[in-house]
Amino acid sequence: MAQLNRIEQFKSEASRAGAKVQEYGSLPEIASFIIGLARQHTANKVVISSPMLAGLIGLGEQLANEGIKVVDVDLSQPQTQQKLREACIEADFGISEATVAIAETGTIVIASDDGISRLAAVLPHLHITLVNCQNIVADLDEAVIRIKSLAHSTSSTVPTYVTFITGRNTTADIPGALLARAQGPAEEHILLIHL
């Protein structure tokens, strides 16, 4: 029951922050939604910073079948960091997988060692984050514990890059005015999946 409350709280807080949150029961439903969104926005290039999850749903292949160039952020391939950075800048969409999501604030957290995952989340015009509902935690303290425990379970260090994203990009630099898209994605879609 506590996890269901966390999911509802996360959806409410993320929506309040300007993100568009949808909940899905299967991976094929997520793929269909992303394909539809790509058509709606006439996307030409998409960066996927989570090749493993995207591979589970065949997302790269489906997007390619729609005529969309797909850039997988797979650092085991012979791509330079600069080429991946340029791909993120040129991309219409960035697709990421959240390491953890914080119910209290509606924040997604993306932890990685390469930095490209962060770029895929903040440089394209539109960002889609896939969130496993089991990775929704109550608050920041629990999120930090979860990220540290991931490092211990893999006998490595805490990830070098930990990115916190709450809603679509806005700025309040001008007193009394909240302005959208100073930089970063104008749209933030969060797709929740029960795995």
Secondary-structure topology with pairs:
Layout: H1 2-16, E1 20-24, H2 27-40, E2 45-48, H3 51-57, H4 59-65, E3 69-72, H5 81-90, E4 93-97, E5 100-102, E6 107-112, H6 116-122, E7 126-132, E8 136-137, H7 140-153, E9 161-166, E10 170-171, E11 179-180, E12 187-193
Parallel strand pairs: 1-12, 2-3, 2-4, 4-7, 5-8, 7-12
Antiparallel strand pairs: 5-6, 6-9, 10-11
Describe this structure in words.
The chain has 195 residues and is of the alpha/beta class. 38% of the residues lie in helices and 27% in strands. It has one domain: Rossmann fold (3-Layer(aba) Sandwich). The protein has helices spanning 2-16, 27-40, 51-57, 59-65, 81-90, 116-122, 140-153; strands at residues 20-24, 45-48, 69-72, 93-97, 100-102, 107-112, 126-132, 136-137, 161-166, 170-171, 179-180, 187-193.
